[in-house]
Design brief:
With 313 residues, the protein is of the alpha/beta class. 33% of the residues lie in helices and 18% in strands.
Length: 313
């Protein structure tokens, strides 16, 4: 059985420097072994003495558990209904090992890693929060392990993936490069995304940079394996991407909240409408001033998610 390993160097100082990600403010980082022996990381925001269903957070393609720090603190420290939040670093991202076989960088493998992450935490049922790639994995889990899912938040992802957005992501990953300092990191993130995210604050841009880069070798490097680009490079964005309606249907028996960035180029308004038609009980939220994918940091979005999560048990 997979074992959970807790990092021994956690600190409790809430005022950490950018990029340090130590202390209770940022959650506790643990490691476990995948079925094929890789050491994978999870970030846990524990709600002491809470028996409520936890949230299991699954990040985007090149993203990691740091994207859920604000969400983790919001739910775990809620005074009325605190919930434990667990966020996964997929293989080859964040603090998880790189996979020597880049062909394993695919959603079905990552879905099985998520199942093991839940198992080592003793989670029998959870509310999934899947951003982009994480939403695809959530839909796969609906088929692979339906009993695990009490509800699902699909953040800017649906069964139909727009080629325009995928092409942008493909180019973005191919341009992976280090930067010298945090000012450069923020500037790079901002230059890449500001036209789609006009509503972000200075703190939001810094949080985005901190979630994407980490200190290494005297500079800052993106926190994903460069080999992650290989399976994406093989995708022809000019061809119609096969839709995932059967996978979406696997969530038909549980509450679903679909979140769309108003400026998204990956989840269209038309697809969101079709999702409502196929899942009549589904709720949706459009986040103004944000694109792909909403950060899940602003109070209005977190409050709406809190109300949804209460419906899930």
């Amino acid at each position: 059985m997979a074992q959970l390993q807790t990092e021994s160097d956690q600190e409790t100082d809430d005022l950490a420097e950018p990029g340090s990600f130590t202390g209770e403010y940022f959650g506790q980082v643990n490691h476990f072994r995948s079925q094929d022996g890789l050491k994978l990381a999870v970030r846990t925001f524990r709600a002491a003495q809470s028996s409520r269903l936890p949230l299991l957070c699954l990040p985007g393609l090149s993203r990691n558990s740091r994207d859920f720090i604000a969400l983790g603190r919001y739910f775990s420290q809620n005074l009325s209904e605190p919930r434990t939040v667990i966020a996964l670093d997929y293989r080859g991202r964040g603090l998880s090992d790189n996979d020597p076989n880049w062909r394993n960088y695919k959603p079905v493998v990552e879905a099985h890693d998520a199942i093991i992450a839940a198992a080592v935490h003793g989670i029998e049922r959870a509310i999934l929060v899947g951003t982009s790639r994480g939403g695809i994995i959530s839909m796969l889990l609906g088929a692979l392990r339906p009993g695990l899912i009490a509800g699902a938040v699909l953040n800017d992802i649906g069964p139909v993936i727009e080629g325009t957005g995928l092409a942008r992501i493909k180019n973005y990953l191919s341009g992976r490069r280090p930067v010298a300092n945090w000012d450069e990191a923020v500037a790079l993130i901002r230059d890449t995304a500001e036209n789609r995210f006009p509503a972000l604050s200075e703190d939001d841009w810094l949080a985005q940079a901190e979630a994407y880069f980490a200190e290494e070798g005297g500079g800052l490097v993106p926190q994903f394996d460069p080999a992650l680009v290989k399976p994406i490079a093989a995708v022809d964005v000019t061809e119609r991407i096969p839709p995932l309606w059967p996978q979406f249907a696997s969530l038909g028996a549980v509450p679903v909240l679909a979140i769309r960035g108003a400026n998204s180029d990956l989840l269209s308004e038309q697809t969101l409408k079709q999702m409502h038609e196929r899942h009549p009980q589904m709720e949706s939220l459009v986040v103004e001033g944000q694109g792909h994918a909403p950060l899940l940091r602003d109070a209005a979005t977190l409050d709406r998610m809190f109300a949804f999560v209460k419906r899930c048990g």
